[in-house]
Specification:
Blueprint: H1 20-24, H2 33-49, H3 54-60, H4 63-70, H5 73-91, H6 95-105, E1 128-132, H7 147-162, E2 166-171, E3 179-182, E4 188-191, E5 203-204, E6 214-219, E7 222-233, E8 236-242, H8 250-253, H9 264-284, E9 291-295, H10 302-313, H11 318-327, E10 329-332, E11 343-344, H12 346-359, H13 364-369, E12 379-380, H14 381-388, E13 391-394, H15 397-406, E14 422-423, H16 430-433, H17 436-446, H18 468-496, H19 501-506, E15 516-521, H20 537-544, E16 551-556, H21 564-578, E17 586-589, H22 594-603, E18 606-609, H23 621-627, E19 631-634, H24 640-643, E20 650-651, H25 661-685, H26 693-706, H27 712-755, E21 760-766, E22 777-785, E23 794-804, E24 807-815, E25 817-818, E26 829-837, E27 843-851, E28 866-867
Parallel strand pairs: 1-2, 1-9, 2-8, 9-10, 10-13, 13-14, 15-16, 15-18, 16-17, 18-19, 19-20
Antiparallel strand pairs: 3-4, 5-7, 6-7, 7-8, 11-12, 21-22, 22-26, 23-24, 23-27, 25-26, 27-28
Helix pairs in contact: 2-5, 7-27, 9-10, 10-11, 11-27, 18-22, 22-23
The structure holds pyridoxal-5'-phosphate (PLP).
Function: Phosphorylase is an important allosteric enzyme in carbohydrate metabolism. Enzymes from different sources differ in their regulatory mechanisms and in their natural substrates. However, all known phosphorylases share catalytic and structural properties.
Protein name: glycogen phosphorylase
EC number: 2.4.1.1
Length: about 850
């Protein structure tokens, strides 16, 4: 076969504007629209043709265009301004710089640990590694399927804004997630586009000696290699693994082909690449993270690789290695939907990991126990992460609670409220999702510093100062833009599908900007109930065709290629769009992606969200909508109960329990129609001189209460303060002096597990009787026998809460203290006392003993507890 070499001919870049290349290779362009304007100024048509990909743009742009730009004073001025902002962004002191400066002043510097020679100038070793199977950063590269990926992308962008020492790890997919085309029958077709990595804003990652980094992992009967790519996102880096290299067999080269494609063999191999390969890539790059954040279970194999490093590399016994691992690992779970949790059969685990059992110095049974799912008998990635990570969290207040009850079975003896899974409510990267037009409004009315305030807990009162007419005018402009985009897309779709000229021409009259517009776009998983409005088409037709107060609806979203019911729903909605009653008034836009999402979330009036509670862990699209003055209409699920205050959007339906899904759907359907007919439509159309005053007031309320809190700036700060800082400190403490603390904690836990059954509460006495007055003290005295367990290894406490029909709610604890010189001490009997004072109401209280160590990550690091037998 002939062998060819390739050569790429690129346009000469005029010296005056040569830093365009730097801009093209930093995802900074994804949130600063002035960079986009710069590329558009060179050649707008080309910018659209390359789908907003600046690297592709620079490969394709003509020398003439570049020369013309370089000789235009106007362009050069624009260029200089953009470069200034970029340089300022990259160099100005960040939140983290300020934080570090404050710590060093406080003299809180961590002392230098032996072996920690990589400490930076402040003496603080801190690096967060963030592993995720998806990163949704920009429309030009589809490495995301939905909310999880978008969240990861926005997380990285906020980490950059804050100046955190942060590195992302993911896989580079040759085809990414699929492109959705809707065919003439109104059915979804999945197409996989080939991504040329040389045309993406990434470069091969180099190690300290300047060599390209290639790592390998063991798969059954072979080694698979992966090349590592480097992407800059503002100040931080993401590294992507790519198995499509000639050292691999043809089949293995396909491993990083599709995101969430292929069978479970592909899936496990991908996850091994991500988790195990990802750790190896960081090591090859000379990076030593002190915090490991696992974004959803796909990346949890990193735990096994780190255990292997500790056992093989540091000669630690397995049990000690596990304690050290727990010190600095955080797991974020993202869904209560069972299909969202990967489970591999034990047979598969044997094939892929039997070499690991020995390396970790444990038996096959012990290995399986790391992640055994009693219900399915399989190896569950969520359990692998939950059981090994020191910290775990859900992604909204409600989802935290749902996760605690989902995993209560792992902590049977503990009240569900105390299951050690916390929550950090999701956010969005504000600048990525904010329409430039609205951004200008904020600049004008909120003052210079508003960007720094997108992590606040207080409302943005100045939003009230924005003149209603100005806000509404911009909203209508954005709506018109959205309508034009929708028409353009349907036009393209019909041309591609060889539809008749009439059908193509008809699109020009689709959607009208002055009509109340509801948007619904998300993954078409059935629990999201895209079809809820269509349960009664007559009633919907009446609303849509009302001569005075019409309604129009825009749908978009992909269904996973294996999700048949989801695809049926897409077909159903596309059929509705062809119904004469709905033509041009209910539309479906194919290939929902970041670009379409931006237009919709900035251009509709109402953003509809109808998942079946409590299936939506958080949802983030509604936050993007609110930021741009779009009102949310959502069931009380995910993030919405935290945001809704009665006047910043609409809550529809309820979170009650229903006998079955159909009952719930019917209930929510009626509630939704009532809300539309009685509130949303009348208020929208109550306009004076084209201005819906009350509506605009609601828009302001929505912006001012939702934008400041639901940002990834606030979210990443919460991760940092609640988890990253603690994990990093624990990492240093546990690793110091030859992993001394890790070993001690392992021994302590072993001792407590073996002896806990000897701990008893032999009696409890209380001061009061069954009735008390508010503010009166209730004193509790308990006699405790600890056996061989020492007083310093336990915590004795009163546990109390509201007594409700469903048990004790709002559980609180109050410490109890050992009485000095009690007589019984010789016989191992200790008396503890404590008191509580209670407001009016009915309460339940009891006493318990739980294990304690200053090195526990949380109360129930060791899920042992001894409750007072009966009171
Ligand atoms: C924001 C976003 C999502 C996630 O939003 P949900 O509310 O979870 O549906 C999904 N896809 C795209 C393209 C988005 O922009």
């Amino acid at each position: 076969m002939a062998s060819y070499r390739t050569v790429t001919v690129i346009p000469r870049m005029p010296g005056e504007i040569e830093r365009l290349r730097e801009l093209a290779y930093n995802l900074y362009f994804s949130w600063d629209s002035s960079v986009v304007d710069l590329f558009k100024a060179i050649n707008q048509e080309l910018w659209e043709q390359v789908y907003h990909n600046p690297v592709k743009f620079l490969l394709r742009v003509s020398e003439a265009d570049l020369q013309k730009a370089a000789s235009s004073e106007q362009f050069l001025a624009q260029y200089r301004q953009v470069m200034n902002s970029f340089d300022k962004y990259m160099q100005q002191p960040t939140w983290y710089d300020t934080f570090i400066a404050r710590c060093s002043c406080d003299g809180q510097e961590t002392k230098k640990e032996p072996g920690n020679d990589k400490s930076n100038t402040t003496g603080r070793n801190f690096l967060i590694a963030y592993f995720s199977a998806e990163f949704g950063l920009h429309e030009s590269y589809p490495t995301y399927s939905g909310g999880l990926g978008l969240l990861a992308g926005d997380h990285c962008k906020a980490a950059s804004d804050l100046g955190l020492p942060f590195v992302g790890v993911g896989l580079l997919y040759k085809h990414g997630y699929f492109t959705q085309l809707i065919n003439r029958e109104g059915r979804q077709e999945a197409h996989y586009r080939y991504q040329n990595f040389n045309k993406l804003p990434i470069t091969p990652a180099l190690d300290s000696s300047g060599k390209e980094v290639v790592i390998s992992v063991e798969l059954p009967g072979r080694q698979v290699m992966a090349r590592v790519w480097h992407m800059k996102v503002g100040r931080i880096n993401i590294y992507f693994l790519d198995a499509d290299i000639s050292a691999n067999s043809q089949k293995d080269r396909e491993l990083t082909g599709l995101l969430y494609g292929g069978d479970s063999e592909t899936r496990i191999a991908q996850e091994i690449l991500l988790g195990i390969g990802g750790v190896r890539a960081l090591r090859a790059l000379g990076l030593a993270p002190t915090v490991w954040h696992i974004n959803e279970g796909h990346a949890a194999f990193l735990l096994l690789e780190r255990l292997r490093e500790l056992v093989e590399g540091q000669n630690l016994p397995f049990g000690v290695a596990r304690e050290v691992l727990r010190a600095d690992t955080l797991f974020t779970t993202h869904t209560p939907v069972p299909a969202g949790h990967d489970i591999f059969s034990q047979e598969m685990i044997d094939r892929y990991f039997s070499n690991f059992y020995e390396k970790l110095g444990i038996t096959r049974e012990q290995f399986m126990q790391l992640a055994l799912d009693q219900e399915h008998g399989g190896f569950n990635m969520t359990l692998l992460a939950l059981r090994q990570c020191g910290f775990s969290n859900g992604v909204s207040r409600l989802h935290g609670a749902v996760s605690r009850s989902m995993f209560h079975h792992l902590y049977r003896d503990i009240p569900v409220e105390e299951v050690p899974i916390g929550h950090v409510t999701n956010g969005i990267h504000t600048l990525t999702w904010l329409a430039p037009e609205i951004r200008d409004l904020f600049d004008k009315y909120l003052g210079e510093m508003w960007e720094r305030m997108i992590a606040g807990s207080s409302d943005w009162e100045q939003v009230e100062d924005i003149p209603g007419r100005e806000l509404w005018g911009i909203h209508m402009d954005l709506k018109e833009k959205m309508v034009l985009l929708a028409r353009r897309h349907i036009h393209q779709q019909r041309v591609r599908n060889h539809e008749t000229l009439d059908r193509i021409k008809e699109v020009e009259s689709y959607l009208r900007p002055e009509v109340l517009t509801i948007g619904f776009a998300r993954r078409f998983a059935t629990y999201k109930r895209a079809g809820l409005l269509f349960r009664d088409k007559e009633r919907l037709a009446a609303l849509v065709n009302d001569p005075e107060r019409p309604l129009q609806l825009i749908f978009a979203g992909k269904a996973h290629p294996a999700d048949k019911p989801g695809q049926e729903l897409i077909k159903l909605i596309n059929d509705v769009t062809e119904d004469d009653r709905f033509r041009g008034k209910v539309i479906f836009l194919e290939n929902y992606d970041i670009n379409i999402s931006r237009y919709l979330l900035q251009g509709v009036d109402v953003w509809l969200n109808t998942p079946r509670p409590p299936m939506e862990a958080s949802g983030t699209s509604g936050m993007k909508a609110a930021l741009n003055g779009v009102l949310n209409c959502s069931v009380p699920d995910g993030w919405w109960p935290e945001a809704y205050n009665g006047e910043n959007g609409f809550t529809v339906g309820s979170d009650w329990e229903f006998p079955d899904d159909d009952d719930r759907d019917e209930h929510d359907f009626y509630a939704l129609y009532a809300l539309l007919e009685k509130v949303i439509i009348p208020v929208y159309y109550d306009q004076t001189a084209g201005l819906p005053k009350k509506w605009v007031n609601w828009m302001k309320k929505s912006i001012k209460t939702i934008a400041p809190y639901f940002s990834t700036r606030r979210m990443v700060l919460e991760y940092t303060n609640n988890y990253y800082m603690r994990a990093s400190e624990r990492s240093q403490i546990f690793c110091a002096e030859g992993y001394k603390v890790g070993s001690e904690l392992y021994e302590l836990k072993k001792f407590l597990r073996e002896n806990w059954h000897k701990v008893q509460i032999s009696s409890v006495e209380t001061s009061g009787d069954e009735n008390m007055y508010p503010g009166e003290k209730l004193t509790v005295r308990a006699t405790v026998e600890l056996g061989p367990v020492s007083q310093t290894q336990v915590c004795v406490e009163i546990v109390y809460g509201e007594a409700t029909r469903r048990g004790v709610k709002m559980v609180k604890t109050a410490p109890m203290y050992k009485e000095e010189n009690t007589n019984g001490e010789q016989q191992g009997r200790l008396v503890y006392t404590g008191d509580i004072s209670l407001p009016q109401g009915t309460y339940a209280y009891t006493v318990r003993v739980r294990p304690y160590s200053p090195h526990f990550a949380h109360y129930f690091e060791l899920p042992l507890v001894c409750w007072a037998a009966s009171l």
